[in-house]
Amino acid sequence: MPLDHVVHTVIDEEESGSGSSYRTTLRVRMARLVVEPPSVFEAPATRRLDDEPIPGEKISFSQLTKYISSGLVMATRLSLTRSYYRYIPKNVEIKGILIQFGGWKQSCEDWERKSNTSAVADKYGFILLTACGSEFGMFSTIFKTKPGFDAGACCTSRDIDDVEYVKTILYRENSRRLPIYGYGYSNGGMMVQTLLCHKVIISGVTLNGILAIDYDPESSFAKCDEVYHDPRHYQWRSNTSMANIHCLDDERVPFDGLPPPKLKDRLNYYFGAYVFPGAKLPAVDRNMIRWAERVGCEATTSTTNISQWTQQIEWSCPPRKRVVSIQRSNCTYHGRAHRVIKTSDLDPASWAAEFFLGIGTST
């Protein structure tokens, strides 16, 4: 059998006092998955250079997960081959680990080529880890896979434990217990907010992302509160800082949480955010208020105009904690608003690096 195929194994087992009988059915369809005997979560890593490389080294490992075939109750355990990139700047003082996440349908290579975060890592002294979404992203088929991260309610067609995936990466890479920062776009931004809920990272900046840990706004807020305040979750990582950079006219993850006005955008929104996988996304301003409350900030805010089109709103927070909302107007001037990343007045990756390091603040 060729490599990088899925093997779905269904075992119907009937037992009696004198013995057991087994009936095994094998189904094969294209995807980069292999079945392995259940053992431990982590298999030995393999290292290789990608055919279309980005800065750094690509590292792969196996992650066990469960898969339930349609019409069956029993789950089959599968081992996914998961990957990420590690990039270590040369001749700079390392100040922390930055793990970045691209959007739905974006390969990790495409995201790094678009964001060029490795240049930011060089300038500010971060070990850069580029996470790669699983090939079970929304609307993946046997003919074409679409990478995605499972932030809770979005954006995979299977339950993939991407929180555990990130924990495994950081377990491998953070033997020095460096500060861990997260930066993510769209679905990757959702993943960063989920990781902040679980306190897997201490600080995060999301770009056109939102909290999507559960399937409607109130349950997302409640679930994040629950796991964030769970005493079993990294209480020494209590100095959370979180920022979101968002276009007010975002048509894919609307700022106000409502369907966009244009018919085409509305159809894409409903078929993406509502029908599949069935999630309702919170309004950005409500989400940021809840983050401020969760972290322990006061309700008072201050506003700074970065430019004519961009303003920064910051909550009054205890020392070593920050919550910031950057709102960008008229992003459609540059094309589809949701796809806007770097503009003449704001480079989100560089802004995020200075946010992580506290550059330009007294806290």
From TrEMBL:
Taxonomy, superkingdom: Eukaryota
Protein name, as recorded: Uncharacterized protein
Gene3D superfamilies per record: alpha/beta hydrolase
